Amino acid sequence: MQMLMPKPQIFVERTLALIKPDVVDKEEEIEDLILRSGFLIIQKRKLQLSPEQCSNFYADQYGKVFFPNLTAYMSSGPLVAMVLARHCAVSYWKELLGPPNSIRARRTHPHSLRAIYGTDDLRNGLHGSLSISSAEREIRFMFPEVILEPIPAGQRARDYLNLYVKPTLLAGLTALCKEKPADPMTWLADWLVEHNPNKPRLQHQITEEEHQ
Hints:
The structure is a single chain. By secondary structure, the chain is of the alpha+beta class. The protein has two domains: 14-142, 2-Layer Sandwich (Alpha-Beta Plaits), CATH 3.30.70.141; 154-195, cAMP-dependent Protein Kinase, Chain A (Up-down Bundle), CATH 1.20.890. It is 46% helix and 12% strand. A four-stranded antiparallel sheet has the order 2-3-1-4. It is elongated. Mean pLDDT is 85; it is low at 201-212. GO terms for molecular function: hydrolase activity; nucleoside diphosphate kinase activity. Pfam families: Dpy-30, NDK. Keywords: Cell projection, Cilium, Cytoplasm, Cytoskeleton, Developmental protein, Differentiation, Flagellum, Hydrolase, Kinase, Spermatogenesis, Transferase.
């Protein structure tokens, strides 16, 4: 059964969200709104970009009249970068943000984040990726170490857990009950590390006798 069943392919979109320097003090409030809107925050960091880094991040805006002001604004203080995940994350996050111009957002989308936290067209409080491809590029820019792999969700996640996680965990818990260690949490953690079915394995170790 295990040999016949392929690994489930699970696709949940990710998008990049930035809390810009002038509203960083509203970080907790904004994160709460994000979570209550059905997103998962799977990566987060606070950082301050140099003007050169801002120029690289907004390279597609290079040459536009507002570009110098944009890079100056985005490098004026620390910002919060987050990777958000959910079904159709890019479009849902753009919808939650509202129009880029905060003045227009207050007229047309008064409950959007930019209407609430933004000031004008430039200082609009938050950033969101425009497309899936731009999200991938921007996430790699802000989180160079991130691995963009599919995130399990729904029935496919349950299938994955049943096939690849639960058997090992069940075996570990059974061994734990038999062993009855003084520190069960540490014992189980060590057991799972030792019996991890996905850890790298050496194909063949050449002994000293074989080498001779």
